[in-house]
Amino acid sequence: MTSPSSFQPAFQPVKLEHASRLINHGPTVLVTSSDGKRRNIMAAAWSMPVEFTPPRLAVVIDKKTFTRELIQASGTFGVCVPGFAAMDLTFAVGTISGRDADKFERFGIDAVTGPVLGLPLLEKGCAAWMECRLIPEKHTEDAYDTCFCEVVSAAADPRVFNNGHWIFDDSNTDLHTLHHLGAGNFARASGMVKAREIGG
């Protein structure tokens, strides 16, 4: 029997109109990819929303990486938002190449299958995920590391993202998002406060 303290509710779908909010505060993300035979996961510190409708993102993925190779082959990738509980894993998958080993097997990562694109996605230790379709940019593919994509499905843990908004409080610190500061150092999103109206 599962105790209330260990119960993890299932991820809930996020409306695509709210998908940009999953990364608009600049968290470190995990990028997952698969070409049908091979799969990979890596950490990325630079990502941002660029369009609301349809929801589009920009993620910096070095063009020499194994992840980029799989993305170019499949035209798809996943963006997962790790929580504080996944900090060590986030650092680990960002330090070795997927060409050397299947990082899902090496680090014992349990993946769920995305409902639209069939991508490997993470829920355990993560706050949210998005399935993304690559937007081909022929004039930039060979010159730039930035990948543009359209979000086609999204979901989040309702304990930390609900009704289109983040909730960072003392009840869900393991799901507070991470912000990479370099050299394996991270800051955790916390101390959420609400602004007051000012002026006449």
Please give a structural write-up.
With 200 residues, this protein is mainly beta. 10% of the residues lie in helices and 34% in strands.
Write a brief caption for the model.
The protein is mostly beta strands and 200 residues long. 10% of the residues lie in helices and 34% in strands.
| Helix/strand structural class | mainly beta
Characterize the overall form. globular
The low-confidence parts are 1-6
CATH superfamily: Electron Transport, Fmn-binding Protein, Chain A
Distance between the termini: 56 Å
The CATH architecture comes to Roll
Major β-sheet annotation = 8 strands, antiparallel
State the CATH topology.
Pnp Oxidase, Chain A
CATH class: Mainly Beta
User: How many domain units?
Assistant: 1
Oligomer: single chain
The string of secondary-structure elements, in order, is: EEEEEHEHHEEEEEEEE
What fraction of the residues are assigned to beta strands by DSSP?
A: 25-35%
Radius of gyration: 17 Å
Give the overall average pLDDT.
92
In DSSP terms, counting alpha (H) and pi (I) runs of 4 or more, how many helices?
Answer: 3
